[in-house]
Amino acid sequence: MTNRGRYSYASSAMSTINNPRRIRRRKDPTPFNILILGTQNAGKTSFLEFLKTALALPAKKQGRKQDEEAIQASIPPVGNFIPHYLETEIDGERIGLTLWDSEGLEKNVVDLQLREMSAFLESKFEETFAEEMKVVRSPGVKDTHIHAAFYVMDPSRLDRNIATAKLAASRNGYPNGKHGTARTIGALDEDIDLQVLRTLQYKTTVIPVISKADTITTKHMSVLRKAVWDSIKTANLDPLEALGLDEDNSSVIEEESDEAESDEPVASPVSAGHSKRLSTNSIRKHKSQEEAKEEEAPFLPLSIISPDLYEPGVIGRQFPWGFADPYNEEHCNFVRLKEAVFTEWRAELREASREQWYEGWRTNRLKHRDLPHAR
């Protein structure tokens, strides 16, 4: 063992290199990157600020503010996309969360905006591709892919879309009765909403969200959610297809139905009149179940309430007739959104970004590079 005196050449700087605390402290958090987009005045920036508050670590667990500021400074803005970085902890895992704010979409320039957005998403793939092409790769390279995107929709605009679609249907597809075809499919606008979903379809997982749930009634929100989901299905889109959630859900439903069937007692022989009465009751029960199923809102889109920016210390919105609480599941779906995206789907979203979106882009990139005219 080296005897270190006051002027010893044996440095003591490495004496703590195997200290477990030092190792844990130096371990980088797992990156998780979210893009937030929507039309102007849809409430996306308010939603972003609420996410920062809702996902922030408790004060006693927060690290040095200088560290987060240093990481924030290392993530520069890209055009109209502004990053907001924070560290959080989910299920015991440290997460380096980057929320990217974007410019509000406008109908007259949405084509240019989506082109810029598509280039932004692909630039993250380009960073990974450039690193993979190196002979000696840089240590500690982080995953910068956009793992998911929240598409925030204003309920008032959805109402206008539904009204336009109904008017067009009453006039055989012509919104003004004379010329021009309808550009809406149910609650979604073909020029903005569906174009956003189609443009980002193979680059990230888009999660539709309806904002301002405190401005409409519960029934109104249920109708809007169903209308949006019906429009997405009509357009042959499935935002969660890459995560394989439908198959899992269907298998669970099948298992539950099998268990229910096995638990049912075997009916004993009864008289004809009694069996007729039973069948009538079962039909009524079946009809009521079908009606309840039709009225039940789909999982997507999710509804949210963002806190009032004029009351920074209050999580929610105070009205003369009551308080709108984003954490109350009867008021909106924010709790469900937080649990699903940041806890249940986090691993699947990262995997889909790497195994499907990036690999698809990379394959296409290599094909174009190998073409004769590309040389």
TrEMBL record:
Region described as Disordered: 1-25, 251-296
PANTHER family linked to this entry: SEPTIN (PTHR18884)
Name of the protein: Predicted protein
Record organism: Hypocrea jecorina (strain QM6a) (Trichoderma reesei)
Molecular function terms from GO: GTP binding
Keyword field: GTP-binding, Nucleotide-binding
Keyword flag Nucleotide-binding: yes
Gene3D superfamilies: P-loop containing nucleotide triphosphate hydrolases
Regions of compositional bias (Polar residues) in chain numbering: 1-19
Stated family: Belongs to the TRAFAC class TrmE-Era-EngA-EngB-Septin-like GTPase superfamily. Septin GTPase family.
Compositional bias per record (Acidic residues), positions renumbered to this chain: 251-264
Pfam family, any one: Septin
Segments crossing the lipid bilayer: none
